[in-house]
Amino acid sequence: MTASAPPAPRSRSRVLASAGAGCGILLLVVAASVALGSRTVGVHQLVQGLAHTGPADIITLVREVRVPRTAAGLVAGAALGAAGILIQTLTRNPLGDPGLLGVSSGSGFAVTLTVALTGSTGVTATVWSAFAGAAAVTVLIVVVAAATDNRHPGQLVLVGVAIGAVLSGIQAALTLLNPRTLDTMRAWSAGTLTGITPGTTAFLTFFVAVGLIAALTVARGLDMAAMGEDLAQGLGTRTHLTRAVAIAAITLLAGSATALAGPLSFLGLMVPHLLRPLVGPGTRRLLLGSLIAGPVLLLTADVAARLVTRPGELPVGVVTAFLGAPLLLLLLHSRKGRIR
Fold first, then answer.
1. C-alpha distance from residue 197 to each of 65, 291, 307 (Å)
2. Cα distance between residue 81 and residue 66, in whole Å
3. Contact 266, 327 (CB under 8 A)
4. Does residue 26 sit in helix, strand or coil?
5. Can you tell me the distance from the alpha carbon of 134 to that of 60, in angstroms, rounded to the nearest whole number?
6. Strand ranges, E, within the chain
7. Which tens digit of pLDDT belongs to each residue from 300-335?
8. Where do the H-state alpha helices sit in 218-262?
9. H/E segment holding residue 136
10. Which residues 6+ apart lie within 8 Å of 151 measured at CB?
């Protein structure tokens, strides 16, 4: 392996300004997520609903529908953004994404298989199935990346797409053969933030927090490994342990997000590419930035999904794919000649 030049640092003031602007945008998006939908909630009604002092229908809409949905978007967005950063850093592939490389499909397949075989749709069974599926596909992708030394990023994406297509095909067959499974998985498999209880979000937030802490712990080691295996080991980085922790973190993050909102593609691809010009390529800064950028993107997509076909709505997975597909094509075009 060859060592690459160290990334150019970003000034602290520029990073702080970006973080402040990001927090402001996140607050606006959260307000829009609570207020907008098939029925618009005004500021006065929003305050009444949150304070439990308004009409019963407003209280129900705000406290039992919009707020839980927004909270789920915050957690799932942060998890997918961080998972995308880890996958791109670990595989040294700028096209890495939990959905694009089949990790989310692995979680979705495992959840569907569990529902079909056991009939259980409980949170515990769903979460552990999602973790198992995400872990299996993540390990497979890392092995493929290591075997090819990631010389051809496009090939790794093709491998991920093929894995995702196979698992999605089997998942579709399972749902079609089992009507009960079909009813349970139909909305979830398209990616949605509806119907998620606060208890489920709180339960999965614990795993997302553990995954983020693990990711931040090995962030410096991942940066060192990206400069070259031999150099990283010479500087004291335990590269095998770093990769193992990173894989565990990806499993927790991608598995939690999929168990919460279904298999969403492209969000993990978009977040790192939006953040790098603002905070630089350092993994720790990117991970912290993903706590803002991931929720902003997912909640924006969810609000758009509610408004495009108002009073109906689209699955949020359709909107993230609509936004992410052009970015993937742009990246492929910009790397033309380097991807085979």
1. 9, 21, 22
2. 22
3. yes
4. helix
5. 35
6. none
7. 999 999 998 888 888 888 898 888 778 777 776 766
8. 219-226, 229-234, 239-261
9. helix 123-148
10. none
